[in-house]
Amino acid sequence: MLRNREIILGVSGGIAAYKSVYLCRELTRRGANVHVVMTNNATQFVTPLTFQTISGNSVTHELFELFHGSEIGHVALADRAHAIVVAPATANILGKVANGIADDFLSTMIMATRVRVLFAPAMNVVMWESAAMQRNIASLLADGYHTVGPVPGELACGVHGSGKMSEPETILEALEIMLTPKDLAGERVLVTAGPTLEPIDPVRFVSNHSSGKMGYALARAAVRRGATVTLVSGPTVQPDPLDARVIRVTTAREMRDAVMAEAAAATVICKVAAVCDWRPVTAHPVKLKKGAESPGALDLEANPDILAELGRTKRPGQILLGFAAETTDVTDNARRKLEAKHLDVIVANDVTSPRAGFHSDTNTVQILTADGDEVRVPNLPKDRVADRILGVVAKLRAKG
Ligand code: CTP
Fold this sequence. Notes:
- By secondary structure, this protein is an alpha/beta fold.
- It folds into 2 domains: 174 residues, 3-Layer(aba) Sandwich (Rossmann fold), CATH 3.40.50; 212 residues, CoaB-like (Rossmann fold, 3-Layer(aba) Sandwich).
- The strands form 6 sheets. The protein has an 8-stranded mixed beta sheet, with helices on both faces. The protein has a 5-stranded parallel beta sheet with strand order 2-1-5-6-7, sandwiched between helices. A two-stranded antiparallel sheet has the order 3-4.
- Strand 18, helix 12 and strand 19 form a beta-alpha-beta unit.
- Helix 1 packs parallel to helix 2 and helix 9 crosses helix 13.
- The site of cytidine-5'-triphosphate has 14 residues, from helix 11 and strand 18.
């Protein structure tokens, strides 16, 4: 999404400016051509040379500094950008833009642009909560500007509260959301992710190797494409996707109850979770001690097949997508599951192939549809695999 994009990174004068160095680095690493515009106050926190070295472009920090031939600098730069992200955005720059004040390069350029602008506010908690700031934020949102954060945390002034700039990864996610065409707008996408965990006693459980990476990538991709997303997640260490509602569960039965409660409202259901097929018959209330209490063998009973139940209760127009984690006869097994569970799409995942499956950041899949279409997705980062999968979903929806 950021490859070959012209991105203007506005940096205003707050201590979080040091984090924007990493943001600049990540933007360039993802293929964006970054032009940094600093306010004079920002140069007190980080030097222009730092940003110049990292972005590979000269840094602008004075009004009317940039003249290219006869073009006026702030207009020329703003005209050819795909997006502007201001991080950190101080109370001062937010107040200026909200009230139409253009008295330095950054505020003038923002006023002179039609491209989308994302602000990542950062300030003291009292400033953030002040009536003036909240009024300004409401005006900015009403005017079509985008914001991400701030988040609660330990602030530079030593106080704990809301006002901390979002982490660079979150700002990048917000930027990608802002830039992605919204071909899933109006869809309500329910995604399940991660493993389930079936207790033996309070310290032991039966589970599987699922990391949740693929399901979370799918939830993020659906948010980017404009869907309203609910994610039902088993235990994982993945951070919550921005702008998705997350329901955390532990066991297969909890996942079943959460999914069935949400399913009626969903227009698309993507069942990525690796649900445990069995659970111990008895979950002991206290820790089993080795020796006398050793269970020897575990008695297991079947868990509900959530996807099969969704297939039986599918509403007209609902698109139902499953995953098939396979180690042998991948395509045949996946197609059998597609038919048996009444799915529209199944993603066949050979979890034994290199750089694919559980825990890997990349995946190699085959997408099969009930109409007989087959799409082979080569080894790609899971975010890109997720986009290919949602491309198939969008195409199915377009077919009607
Ligand atoms: N699934 C489910 N509930 C279960 C088991 C699986 O909803 N109790 C869903 C998974 O989320 C996935 C699909 O069914 O979308 C296929 O899961 P998989 O583990 O590949 O297959 P199973 O149906 O469990 O069959 P098998 O274990 O025989 O391969």
